Amino acid sequence: MYPFFHWVSMVLFERSEEIFQDENVLHDDYQPQSLEERDEEVERFTAYLQPVINGSQPRHIFLYGKTGVGKTAVTKYLLQHLEQDATQYDDLQVQSVYLNCEDLTSSYRVAVSLVNDLRAPDNQISRTGYPLNAVYDMLWEKLDEIGGTILIVLDEVDYIGDDDSILYQLPRARSNGKIENARIGIIGISNDFKFREKLDPHVEDTLCERELHFPPYDAEDLRNILQKRAELAFDDNVLNGDVIPLCAAFAAQDKGSARQGLDLLLEAGDLARRRSDQQVTEPHVREAKQLLEKQRIEESMKELTSHGHLTLLAMVSSTVSDPSSVPLQKRTIYEKYCDLVHATDRDPLGGRAFHNHLAELSMLGILDRRKRNEGRGGGIYYEYKIDVSMEAAISTLEHLHLSTELNLESLREDAKKQELM
Ligand code: ADP
Ligand code: MG
Question: What are the residue boundaries of the Cdc6 C-terminal domain, all occurrences included (predicted)?
């Protein structure tokens, strides 16, 4: 009768049962029940939190370290335990609030989010329309109403940016007489150590009363972290023995990030599942690495202007036309860049602006930049090479839909001929 009945009865989605026991365990928001390789950090962090259990004013703690090194996981783990353990003492009341500041780029937004997190779901305030001071007053009122010790985690706190009055107001709320009942402890977390240098010295002194650095993981750390997670994520006997060491080695070589290792493991498993393979093996990991790398470069290239794209193209073209000349000096890349820009009927940037594009591509990890010293009186110069696979670089450029004047097809062919991919 109804034509769409046919559609409804046709099965499009079916639960897959191969490879993974529970792939959510590899996702970023999964909170592990135990932490590997962070004993020292956990011990110091625990000591910094001890005043909470003793019923005194908490320390403000600042955590820093690159992405994927366990800052968020360790913080959530310890706060869970702290809240739990505090319940043994009748005279203690401990509550924590966790905020990721990624989308909260001003003190106003952070304050509104805090108020709403602390209030009941049916008593939320709107995200606009109040004067900042009114929001602060609501915050102080709520904090005092709750009372006890309240730990406020501001993760990725650098996103707050210059409008950071809240970092000044929160730690001082009690001494400034804004609150009487509650004791506030701030835990600030950042990937960007320079964030500290940008803070007003008064803010820095209080906010970073105690600080804790999380170093990158090495390959052995990562093997243990991945192993524990894999046991829960994968079906038995699905992972070939080389898979975890290889994921760990790749992640250690790059940034020492557990997130990166876990992403690689998930992607490799997903590839095996999509292909209906019975096991996850080394080639899956290698292919997953390429896929993730491509995604990452494509994401970062979106942020760049067309001159940034042409700078990468110049780098790729110069490398392909003479692989033996790599690493390349700025002059060589700049000449190629000017040719390419002229081919698209535009005006090239000057040398200095061009230099900034090279620096940006290096910062994004797409190029590798090395400082060279000419020796006596020769001065310092930089050399560049492509720090991602040729396949990833070229396919990113292809996706950018650069001018049709630029022949990417022959570039790809030449790269193959030169055995660069
Ligand atoms: P950061 O906050 O430093 O960017 P996360 O804490 O989010 O990093 O860690 C990234 C991923 O790695 C998460 O899935 C986390 O559970 C896991 N992870 C990081 N460190 C450890 C560890 N020491 N033990 C177990 N899992 C970890
Ligand atoms: Mg984090």
Answer: 312-397
